[in-house]
Predict the structure.
Amino acid sequence: MIRRKMVAGNWKMNKNLYETRDLLREMVPELKDITYVDIVVCPPFVGLGVAVRETADTPIQLGAQNLHWEASGAYTGETSPAMLVDLCRYVIIGHSERRAMFGETDVSVNKKVKAALQAGLLPIMCVGETLEENKAGLTAEVVSRMVREGLKDLTALQATDVIIAYEPVWAIGTGLAATPDGANAVHRDVIRPILREMFGQLVGNGMRILYGGSVTPANAAELFAQSDIDGGLVGGASLKTESFVAIVKAAL
Ligand code: PEP
């Protein structure tokens, strides 16, 4: 099964409008001829408008970092799927920072995934164990639960539009990436079998599973060469043109 690779940059809460414009003006010439990998940039909400202008007619696609599941209403400070769909194609859902700091749960992640799909957005759903869970040997259990609960009640057709990002919390922003073998084992032996079980062989084998957590130009090629690592969700290294472009190019 050949899956098209994806490299998505999660800018988190970084870059104002001018910085967004300048960074994209630097990245576009370097990435404009790359057609063999899906390139996604996820700036903060307020930068999406500028990003739409700067990436028009380029292969760079855009994503948001969160959304609310309701379509509209009295939800101060929130952003609906219907608002995002005019600006971007992807949305990161259930990032570990949102789970840890903003009270997101498997239940809210599932609502968000369904709302995103209903609006025509492609969710990048994040799952991953903490250091304590990892040390306690709970990785498979925790990741399985997050995948099953996050994708609960989806049809196989809907699942084809979902991208999973396995992001062990201990690897995010720490410089301590999972080993290519270790990450691939979670993708191949934990996540992929659940996707097959939930959505059938064809769909389960076709869904992309990204790895995230301290991906750099130095480790990207080896990570992306693994059988079930279909690209990366990149935080820190996505904020600089040189490192982001090098990671994209590693996704051959
Ligand atoms: C992330 O936040 O999704 C991430 C993977 O961060 P970093 O690449 O900086 O570890």
Remarks:
- The pocket of phosphoenolpyruvate is lined by residues 10, 167, 172-173, 212-215, 233-237 (CB under 6 Å).
- The radius of gyration is 17 Å.
- The chain has a mean pLDDT of 98.
